[in-house]
Amino acid sequence: MAELFVDAFHVECRRHPAYVAATKVPRGSDRGWLAAFVARVAAIPPADLEVSGVPDEPGADTELSRTVLAALGPADGQPLFLVRPGPTLDAKVAALAELVHHVGWDGEDLGVTHLVPPMVPAALEFVSWAMPDPAVGATVLVVDEAPVRLRTDPAVPSALGLRLNGVAGPLRVVEYGRDGVPAAPRAARVLHGPGIHSPWSALQTVLEEGSMPAGETVLLDSGAPGDWLLLEATGAPVARRPHRVGTEAAVR
What we know:
5 helices; 12 strands; single chain
């Protein structure tokens, strides 16, 4: 894989996601149509599905993404990659155009939907060869917020924003998984928890406490098969950007 460095990151989640039974959603609505489609294609009883309570109104589907981008701050002309799993309300990634419009993104943008989990390793693999200029880098949004899911799904809707480059940064991507367990040497510490937000939120806390010296490695593990990422602190300072916010993690 091409060299990747994390210059900054931010993660947001809906702590109390409002999901409702699919059978209670009007069939004429976008989510009602999608729930019926998923039930039919996957041969799942509609009673076993639930639908996101995010309203069918402009901007609702991009709320998490806009919050993450606002926390990361201006991108200095970087391209934006929006990565989401399926099913989605708009297979043509209309949400990306809406997002770019709302935040005034001035770089290139590209949307990828129906990415197969594990999502973060898959997104890194994609960006490692799709990033136009390693020196300029790229901003990647990995959004895990299903509009339709099984009633038994405990996942918390979340969005992870990564500001990456291929030259230098405070966190170096050593290795990431797709299958099996990490083949890299044992990490100095392991941060784990379900979903995208858990290990990244834990890393955010670690870095804000300034307790990760240069050369130390950390393994982020969601517990799902192949969903792990090994990072190394380089000791380099975080790039200072305008409008930096306190919730953005930093290596000190």
